[in-house]
Structures are given as structure tokens and as C-alpha cells.
Amino acid sequence: MKTERNLTSIAAAMFALNFSILAFYSLICVTTTFRICDTLGAHDFLTSVRQIPRYPWQMPVQTLSLFALLCTVSFFKIFRPIEHFPLRVVICVTEIALCAGIIVSLNFYYSGVALLVLADLVHYLRSNRMRLCFIVILSLMFAFGRYEIVEQFTRCIAFSAYLSYYNPIAQSCFTSLESLMVCLNILLFVLYMILLFTGQKEENARIRKLNEQLNQANDQLRDYAVNMERMTQMRERNRLAREIHDTLGHTLTGIIMGADAGLALFDVAPEESKKRIQVVAQSARDGLTDVRRSIKALRPDALEHSSLAQALEGLVENFRLTTSAQIAYYQEAGELNLDVDEEDALYRVVQEGLTNAVRHGRADRISIRVTRTGDLVTVSIRDNGIGCGTLVEGFGLRHMRERLDMLGGTLSYGNLEQGAQDGYTGFFITVGLPIRNRKGE
């Protein structure tokens, strides 16, 4: 913010100084012309310059009018920022055209206004290519827009011809003032550019530091999320383990005690023994119901309320909306009428594959294909992420393999080869699951 204020102050000083310089040249030429006419020295002056000057009023009116337009365009950019790139280029070209018009209307006496426009455009533009283009154009205008260079190609009267009308002391004062103002303009331009690029360098360093802090915060948040997920899983497993333990412990204790009592009464009181056996059987049924209810809590909620095909479609759509990843999902296996444990395994495979692709592979395009050949269902997941440098089976893949091993399934994974035509060159997971005979088939 402080740098911007300093740049604004220097730019304002450059505008004021350039206005003073343009007014200086215009007033010298106009005043000298009228004084020559008043002293009847026009014949001698025209003989020495061998040119006919323009009407005296033309130079100040044209020059200062063009400079006023230049100031208006420059201030317009500040108070009405324009994001449309072609329009920004048009405004920059307009400033360059006004700059050229000022140099020409001033008979090429002063080209330092090109430095003013250059400083303004370099600060305004963000494209390095456009900056370089305008820097070259305005540098050429500053270097070659001098009367001494274009003297052979123009019919303008040299500024020194007007100064020669005055005595040596006045000439020396005017020349010194001219040099002072021109040098001061160059000095302000150099100071402006140094401050501008220094400020941009500091801003870039600040942005890099903020990015590093943001990346560190993201890493910490990612680690925190992983730890929280593991702690949640551990707490849930412990809770379910305690519930199953308490349920089984209570039920089995009752069954053992009831069975022992039934055996003890079997010979002496058969009817009483029969009643005890019936109570044991009912207790076993109730315990089995409790265990099933506890195990059922491990099942994804999506599979509780819909079929596997619908649950997978919902999983893919929800993941696409939350991550903005492009997911191509192909379900080519027909009707997926599987057992509960098989549905759970396939659902968790797709869920874990999507999570790994985005979290570890940083992928934004993922392909999921579910096919079936006979009694073998195959799930293929591919992504365009960064792949894996060292293939280490982490918690997710290990848990996936354990699920599949219990069902007789297979798991393969690895990095995809570069140059694939489908654009997926990151990581792949392929799962094969042999399915059992289902009801109704």
C-alpha cells in the first residue's frame, strides 16, 4: 500500500513536470514569434531559418489539448478499471498515439513525454509480452523523436533558432531550465521504475510466502483429517467390539448356564429340562439378532436404502459435485444382484479408489468401469494423477485387499504407462470378485 502511494505521487509529479515542459516550449515559441513581429525582425528571422513557421497559437493549443486528453485517458484507467483485454490494449494504443501527436505538434523539441506514457503503461499492464512490445515502441519514440534526428525529414524550425533571438544571458537561462526539467523527468522515470519493480518483487515474495504457508496449512489439515478418520474408525470399531462382546458374553453365559441346568434336569425332570432348553434356544435367537444388528451398523448407509447400482451412481455423483473432478462411470455388468458382503466390498473399493485418486494422486479425471464375465465382476479404476513414486500398500489398499481375500477376490494396482491414448496416465486399481449364486438366479 505504501509503495502504491509512492508510485502515485511520483506519477503525479511526472504529469505536472511534463505539463510544465510542454508549456515552456510552447510559450517560448509563441512569445518569441510575437516579439519578432513587434520588432519588425521577421525578415531576418525567416532568412536565417529558411522556413515559414506555423500560426503561433497552433503549437500551444494542439500540444496542451493532446496532453489533456492523455491525462484524461490515464486517469480513466485508474478510476474505471477495465478487465476486458482487447479494450485494455485499445486504451494503451490510444495513449501511445496521443504521445506521438504531442511530440509532432511540439516540432520534436521534446520526446520525454514518452517516458511518462511508458511508466504509466508498464504499471497498468500485467502481460509481460505486451509490456515488452510497448517498451520497445516508446523507447524508440523517446530515442528518435528528437529534432536533431528528424531534422532532414521535417520542415519544422529548430528551437535553438527561437533562442538565438535573445541575448546570451537569456539563452543560457532558458537552456539551463530546459536541461534541468528534461533531466528531472528522466530522474523521476528511473525512480518510478525502480520503485515499481522493487514493489513487484516484494509482492511476489510475499505471495510465495503466503502460498508456502497455505501449503503447510493444507498439509497439516490433511494430516489432521487422516488422524481424525483413523481415530473415528478406531472408536467405532472399539464401540462395536464392546457391543458385540457384551451381547455375545451375556447371551453365551445364559446359554451355557441354561444348557447345564437342562442337562442336570434331563433325567429327573424331563419336562422342566425341555422348558430350559426352549429358553436357551430363544436366548440364542435373541443374541443372534443383536449380533446381526451390530454388524449391520458397519454397512454403508447408501446400501441400506438403495441397490448397489444406485448407491454407486450416487457415490460417483456426490464425489463429482464435492471435488469438481471429471468422473466417467461405465456400468457394463448388467443387474448387480449380489449378496450383502459382496455389495459392501465393491462399494468400498470404488469409494477408496475415488478418494485415493484425488487425495494422493491429485487427479481431476477418473474413469470407473464395472464389467462382468460369467460369475466374475471386475472393477477398473484409472486416473490422470501423478501416480505413485514408491508403491507401498497403505491402510486403504491393505483394508481393500483384506476384504477381497475373505471373498476370494483379487486386487492389482500400479502406475499407468505414459503416453496412453485415453489420457489416463496416473494410477490404476483393478479388482476381480467371484460372486456366489444369488437368490432368483
Question: How would you describe the overall organization of this protein?
Answer:
With 441 residues, the protein is an alpha+beta fold. The protein is built from 14 helices and 5 strands. The chain has helices at residues 2-38, 42-49, 58-79, 85-105, 113-124, 128-144, 147-150, 159-163, 168-265, 270-296, 301-305, 308-323, 340-359, 395-406, and strands at 326-332, 365-373, 376-383, 410-415, 427-434. The chain has a 5-stranded mixed beta sheet, covered by helices on one side. Helix 12 (308-323) runs parallel beside helix 13. The longest helix has 98 residues, at 168-265. The model has no long low-confidence stretch (mean pLDDT 80).
Give the key terms.
about 450 residues, alpha+beta, five-stranded mixed β-sheet, about 70% helix, about 10% strand
**Oligomeric nature of the chains:** single chain
- Annotation field: number of helices: 14
Helix content: 55-70%
N- to C-terminal distance: 74 Å
Rg calculated over all Cα atoms: 43 Å
The arrangement of helices and strands along the chain is HHHHHHHHHHHHEHEEHEE
Strand residues, percent: 5-15%
Q: Helix and strand layout, with pairings?
A:
Layout (H helix, E strand, L loop, with lengths): L1 H37 L3 H8 L8 H22 L5 H21 L7 H12 L3 H17 L2 H4 L8 H5 L4 H98 L4 H27 L4 H5 L2 H16 L2 E7 L7 H20 L5 E9 L2 E8 L11 H12 L3 E6 L11 E8 L7
Parallel strand pairs: 1-2
Antiparallel strand pairs: 2-3, 3-5, 4-5
Helix pairs in contact: 1-3, 1-5, 1-9, 3-4, 4-5, 5-6, 5-9, 9-10, 12-13, 13-14
Question: Can you summarize this structure?
Answer:
By secondary structure, the chain is of the alpha+beta class. It has helices at 2-38, 42-49, 58-79, 85-105, 113-124, 128-144, 147-150, 159-163, 168-265, 270-296, 301-305, 308-323, 340-359, 395-406; strands at 326-332, 365-373, 376-383, 410-415, 427-434.
